[in-house]
From TrEMBL:
It comes from Nonlabens ponticola. This is Carboxypeptidase-like regulatory domain-containing protein. Keywords: Carboxypeptidase, Hydrolase, Protease, Signal. GO terms for molecular function: carboxypeptidase activity. The keyword Protease applies. It holds the Pfam family CarbopepD_reg_2. InterPro entries: CarboxyPept-like_regulatory. It comes from the Bacteria. Residues 1-17 form the signal peptide.
Length: 291
């Protein structure tokens, strides 16, 4: 179990140099787009735009940037074509399973119950704007309570009120995602190890017949920054470190045939090879559903 924690954290120890001056804007309105996920293609370097769409990143002449945000078309742009202002167009993808009826809310059931807020295994992004995707196949047990009411997650944070984003998609393949909502969903984790709830009632989303993909996105923004000191490998010198909170817990699989993947460098990658038990782990998430 301890080796898993080390493997996950080992992705996060690289330093990130920044170059400021870019802004991501809506192609139609010119308004800045907040919290855009930004990567240098096929690399381990990325960041997140701030509340006004501005960001900084160190890029080389031959690099390509990949930008993505819910509700917008993803964009790949070569470094030599970059302007200080980068425009994203609204997504043309139709929402999956548009719901007209509202849940009755007379029956509530939980699946993948979280029994404790304590966990020894957490995924930490360090300095990277990772997205962690968890696919949950459809189960007949959801028939009487088909609407998503809330998510419960086990988080750990070294700062107060750390912010993260949740995205929900239909489908059983991380490469073929169909969004289930237009509005962006944010969660806030309190300091310490907590069970953090994200309310979904207002979205009126049914569990998709093709399966549900829950995406947890780390946000590389100032309000999530945690600075700390640590001792180097020789045990002689103290150094300063930076990470971005919060971390999310991993547990043994409870949802049948669930799977994990990670979005990094502009593409989705299976996490199967990062676990010493194969792909028998999942995010510590509880689904609360209603009728």
């Amino acid at each position: 179990m301890k080796s898993l924690f080390v493997i996950l954290i080992s992705f996060c120890t690289y330093s990130l140099a920044a170059q400021s001056g870019f802004q991501v804007v809506d192609d139609s309105t010119g308004a800045g787009i907040p919290l855009v996920n930004i990567w240098i293609k096929n690399s381990n370097t990325g960041t997140t735009s701030d509340a006004s769409g501005r960001f900084g990143i160190m890029i080389k002449e031959k690099d390509t940037l990949i930008l993505s945000a819910l509700g917008y078309q993803s964009l790949e742009i070569a470094a030599d074509e970059l302007d200080q202002t980068i425009s994203l167009k609204e997504s043309l993808t139709q929402l999956e399973d548009v719901i007209i009826e509202k849940p009755k809310g007379t029956e509530i059931k939980s699946y993948g119950a979280i029994k404790s807020r304590k966990s020894s295994l957490y995924i930490s992004c360090g300095l990277k704007p990772w997205k962690i995707g968890m696919i949950i196949p459809k189960d007949s047990a959801y028939h009487n309570t088909p609407f998503l009411s809330k998510l419960k997650l086990v988080t750990s944070s070294d700062i107060k009120d750390a912010k993260f984003e949740i995205q929900l998609y239909a489908g059983n393949d991380s490469l073929k995602q169909f969004p289930l909502h237009d509005d962006r969903i944010y969660g806030h984790a309190k300091k310490g190890r907590k069970i953090t709830e994200v309310d979904l009632d207002s979205l009126n989303i049914r569990f998709p017949d093709t399966g549900l993909m829950i995406v947890y996105e780390f946000l590389i923004i100032d309000e999530n920054k945690h600075t700390y000191t640590y001792t180097d490998s020789d045990g002689k010198k103290r150094k300063d470190g930076i990470s971005y909170e919060p971390k999310i817990a991993v547990r043994d699989r409870q949802f049948r045939n669930s799977s994990l993947s990670r979005y990094s460098g502009g593409k989705w990658l299976s996490l199967e090879n990062n676990f010493n038990k194969g792909n028998d782990y999942e995010l510590a998430i509880e689904l609360v559903m209603t009728n």
